[in-house]
Amino acid sequence: MLRWLLGGGREPQGLAEKSSVQTIGEEQIQNPYTELLVLKGHQDIVRFLVQIDDCRFASAGDDGIIFLWNAQTGEKLHELHGHTHKITAIAPFSSSDGTEEKADLIITASADRTVIVWDCTSGRQVQRVSCFHSTVKCLTVLQRLNVWLSGGSDLCVWNRKLDLLCKTSHLTDAGISALVELPKNCVAAAVGKELIIFRLSASNNGSEGWNVLEVKRLVDHQDNISSLVSVNDLTFVTGSHVGELIVWDALDWTKRASECNFWDSSVHPDVQPEIKLSQSPNETSVQHLTSDEECVFAAVGKGIYVYNLQMKRVIACQRTAHDSSVLHIEKLPNRQLISCSEDGSVRIWELREKQQLPAEPVPTGFFNMWGFGRANKQANQAAKKMQENTPMYFLELVGDLIGHSSAVQMFLYFGELGLATCSADHLIILWKDGERESSLRSLALFKKLAQNGDLQLKL
Predict the structure, then answer these.
(1) Distance CA 235, CA 291 (A)
(2) CB-based contacts of 357: which residues, under 8 Å, 6+ apart?
(3) How high is the pLDDT of residue 390?
(4) Residue 409, phi-psi category: left (phi > 0), alpha (psi -120 to 50), beta (remainder)
(5) pLDDT at residue 458 greater than cutoff 70
(6) Nearest alpha-carbon partner for 84 in 53, 47, 42, 113
(7) Are 409 and 328 in contact (CB under 8 A)?
(8) Mean pLDDT across 391-406
């Protein structure tokens, strides 16, 4: 384990060619992550991080090994071996009932077509299933029903003892790529371009049997669905590889709003004009979505876009937030965002409101000359009023975290404990608040000196 102190920003290679990407100098006043811990152990790309509790998390990737870590100290708690191929999905599952104590569990799926439930306290396997006909690509836990779902070429419903409760018939060779929980015991599954709504129901005859029924297929996307996110009990959002973003009603599964970058009004005259999410047709894929209920934050190509759900439009964007595709984005409790990219960087952004400049008065003489001064004056006043009532925002780069040498796959935010990132360089980095860590070390030293002083007095 290594400990580095960061002295400042970076000067990326080829800066002249990439001048459209913002840079930040050595003074990063709003970046608290000035100290880092490098955690080693993985032997291949680390793709997944999952939080277990307030101070523990698990990491997994292409080496098939799962590590459990302490987010405060960076201590390796357990090394879990059981899979023979890369990990394809991971999910936490805290289970408890009236007869057993609460147990912190994680579920892992692998390209070896097995799923394993692990006990995070002991590091032991709890259950293992090897009956899958294809790789499980996603896992979703429905805590309210005390069941979990696996998605691959079919959708399977399991209890926490890994008893198969029910499953769908074979869907497609591509299978389910993502799942999101919906109200009324429903889930939405991304299967290629389609979004399939399934409903779970327990048997009415008093047995422990379950049923999973397909209730609707939504075919509004023009390309494969790449990201799903639940906003609240009323709304969920999907994104596709060609830059489509669709807002759905979570109760009746109707389309509330959409944004895309390829609609042609001459081909679709009945479709309202929509804001383009990205200029380049080659970099339009929606890699990741997250939400704070007011807005949806989308990682699209190299950019970051903030879509306001009430206004039904993009209110802020950074079209070239990174040198390469943005792989993960999260909204912090404050007005900040964190993003990570294939270029190996992790960046902190702040959503700020633009200062509105007073609109300059337009001379009426020109318009009166052509005989439409009154109409244009009224239109101008209406546009001015709309502009005054509509706040404008922008994303400002306030921090740049330099430590990884390859694509940063994702991260976890632990509040005052800092940030955990994982990368294709086989490393995990814990980013710490330098001032806080320094204060904690000083406090620990003072306590130790005080204890030694008391011991000497007693002697």
Answers:
(1) 11
(2) none
(3) 60
(4) alpha
(5) no
(6) 113
(7) yes
(8) 91
Q: Is 109 buried (19+), middle (13-18) or exposed (0-12) by CB count in 10 A?
A: buried
Beta bridge partners of 401: 346
- Residue 434's SS3 state is helix
Whether 106 shows a pLDDT value over 50: the answer reads: yes
CB 30 within 8 A of CB 398: yes
Q: What are phi and psi of 331, to 5 degrees?
A: -95, 130
Binning the chain into helix, strand and coil, the percentages to the nearest 5 are: 10, 45, 45
Give the start-end residues of each E strand in 2-55: 2-5, 33-39, 46-51
For the segment 45-84, what is each residue's pLDDT rounded down to a tens digit?
999 999 999 999 999 999 999 999 999 999 999 999 999 9
Q: How many CB atoms lie within 10 A of CB 364?
A: 13
Residue with the larger pLDDT of the pair 335 and 456 = 335
Distance from CA of residue 444 to its chain's centroid? Answer: 36
Ordered DSSP codes for 287-310: EEEEE-SSEEEEEETTEEEEEETT
CA distances to 34, 120, 181, 345, 393 from 403, in Å = 11, 28, 35, 8, 30
Nearest CA-CA partner of 114 in 82, 92, 157, 141: 82
DSSP letters spanning 305-362 = EEEETTTTEEEEEETTSSSS-EEEEEE-SSSEEEEEETTS-EEEEEEEEPPPPPPPPP
Q: Are 188 and 211 in contact (CB under 8 A)?
A: no
Q: What's residue 183's pLDDT?
A: 94
Cβ(187)–Cβ(196) below 8 Å:
no
Distance CA 308, CA 420 (A): 28
Q: How many C-beta atoms surround the C-beta of residue 334 within 10 A?
A: 8
**Residue 352, beta-bridge partner list:** 394
Rounded to whole angstroms, what are the CA distances from 372 to 255, 366, 367, 376? 40, 9, 6, 6
Residue type, 185: N
Which residues, in sequence order, are bridge partners of residue 348?
A: 338, 399
